[in-house]
Amino acid sequence: MDSDTKGDSSMSAGAVEVEPMPGYVDLITRASTVMFGALRDCSACGLELSKRTLLDNAYITWTEIVLFFFCAFLWTQIRRGLTECLFKPLAQWCRLLPKDAAKMPESAWKLVFYTMSWSYSTYLLFFTSYNFFHNPPSVFYDWKSGMSVPTDIAIAYLIQGSFYGHSIYATVYMDAWRKDSAVMVVHHVITLALIGFSYAFRYHNIGILVLFLHDINDIQLEFTKLNVYLKSRGGGYYLLNDVLSNMGSVSFSITWFWFRLYWFPLKVLYATCVSSIQTVPNIPFYFFFNALLLALLLMNIYWFLFIVVFVVKVLKMKEVNDVREYEEEDGNGTKTAAGLLKEPQAESHGDDDDAGHHNSAQGKHVQNGITKEKHL
């Protein structure tokens, strides 16, 4: 966290004509051409060159490393404090179902953090002089090894890096275990490696753009989960939370594709694969960073498959679950879905129950054969 002065890159970027965003075909053809060309020209590539490049270009202090571990520990303690003093009492006050009350604190915590972190990255990209979102290749303009990191970006890196350090611990020891939890741990490790190495090698400009494009989906996901938990509480059914959960699901699906599968490859990957080496020949760890970003893209595609399955279930008017959840056995040994995004399909109990969903005359909502009071 070296300087209060913004880097030269943000100053010069405004004076340079903005490059048009490529299409998928242009990304694949140009990125593959540039990367294969760089690999062919790298006659000295190997472990010895990597070690020398690491020693010559990585800049990080012991103070920054200590701050990282301290803040990661601090996030864990803040989460535990908020869970015990706020989230659990709130779940009790709302009279959530036991399984929902157990999961609600995790979603509430993540919603609070991601809303804060995404708001800050949005501020940096759209309310300061940084032009990285509108002109991604500008992240490498005037790049220099060991250049100072602006304080506002360094703060964002400390917040995000320490949070993902905390998240590795939290996924294993604090969160509910799901089908994709192992992939989530890998995601956190890769994200932390990207954050740490991009800071040390002064690729912080592109890092802010990557964080901005990913955090918004986490806000929508946790918002949707909370409304799923809140729509069935205290023996009643709340239509407003049901509507909000459906709206959140639709918004989450659209923005996941738009931010992570459209803007992320066409803005970030094009800049790192093509623009970086054109702007800075022999840029350090070109293949390493692009391999990590490509792995991140593959995980985004992997999770998008879950979203597609979820949307198909909604379109077929079937039971909607978080398809990442493991199944649990009920008291009769029958397997039931333990979904986070769950809207159980009401069972029909004859012609008197309005197709098994609602009893409009009595203001009731039938869910899994249980009649609940219906509220707005």
Describe the model.
This protein is 63% helix and 6% strand. A hairpin with a 2-residue loop joins β1 and β2. α5 packs antiparallel against α6, α8 (204-230) runs antiparallel to α9 (239-279) and α9 runs antiparallel to α10. The chain is globular, with a radius of gyration of 24 Å. It is α+β, with helices and mostly antiparallel strands and 376 residues long. The termini are far apart. Strands 1-2-7-6-5 form a 5-stranded mixed beta sheet. The chain has a two-stranded antiparallel sheet with strand order 3-4. The chain has helices at 8-13, 24-41, 47-57, 62-93, 98-126, 151-173, 181-200, 204-230, 239-279, 286-315; strands at 232-233, 236-238, 327-329, 335-337, 358-359, 364-367, 370-375. The relative contact order is 0.12. It is built from 10 helices and 7 strands.
